[in-house]
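Collaborator request, handled under Task 6.
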Amino acid sequence: MPEKARVRAEAARLRALFEAEGAQGFETSILQPAEVLLDLYGEDIRARAYVTSDALRGEQMLRPDFTVPVVQAHMAYGAEPARYTYAGEVFRRQEDDPDRENEFMQVGYEVFDRENPIDSDAEVFSVIQSALGGARLRAATGDIGILMAAVAGLQTTDARKKALRRHIWHPRRFRALLDRYSGRSPVPAARKALLAAADPFAGGAPEIGLRSRAEVEARIEALKADAAAAPISEREVKLLDALLQVRETLPNALEHLRDIAVDMPAIGKAVDRLARRMKALEKRGIDVAALDFEASYGRTSMEYYDGFVFGFYAEGRPDLPAVATGGRYDALTRVLGQGREIPAVGGVVRPGLLLQLEAGQ
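Structure tokens returned to the collaborator:
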């Protein structure tokens, strides 16, 4: 790997490029309050981040990225519209792949602009692509918003749709829920017995754990309500499957999605946004005919992406993570804005990987 001094110099070069695009420099502490991230993502974040405890400040986390502190700062003090750039280390556990770095430099470009989110998507993508220079990279794009719209349009209970939305970023869990809600997978025997019992608390088993009896009773009632609900239709499941399997060049993917939208009108507006984004990318000189689109792309990234997503990958180097990634995160501004919100999109580059590719490593 390139030495740190060279990585820092490359990071400074990238940050200067983003500043030339009108971005304001942003700085934030390496140690971040863990509470905010835990509230956003639940305990799952612990598996990906380094958490420590402070007697005065409570749980702290080595920053896993910059986006959350950028949004917090903008929602508290920022003017509109705004563009930010930053450069610094982030820290992420890599227990599933010990060969990958758990500490690396990121340089980012973030746009907060409510006037034309589609143009902002195209701007961030083109600025990041330009910053990557002549590196031979494959660009992948997607749109989480299309899948979210599909889930919102399902003919099923609000509770089921809420659960599916929550697990969009966990494909295996999402599939397991969809199979259960559609009746494709059988109800576990233990759950059948629980729901059939006249008194689930009979038998004198000790009541242990952190949940109160009232919370357990509420959960049982929710399970009963779910068991009484009609299954999601096979037709809707097949349409979702067709949607998730879309993986083509952007123009062809758009036509395929338009065909699916005929039978799944809930995704119509999201597909129209994709069409307008394609035109905005063309206006910025992007060769959309060679741009890949994957309907499932971005589903294993941080959960704040809720619209356009993209990444740049080294051809022939599947061992390397993405050299650059980004996406739209409107919902995050709503959560952190305490009643305020603004469309927001951004991307990050890993300068260390750029240098590694230049050196042929």
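The cover message to the collaborator said: "DSSP finds 14 helices and twelve strands in the chain. The longest strand covers residues 82-91. Please let us know whether this matches your experimental observations."
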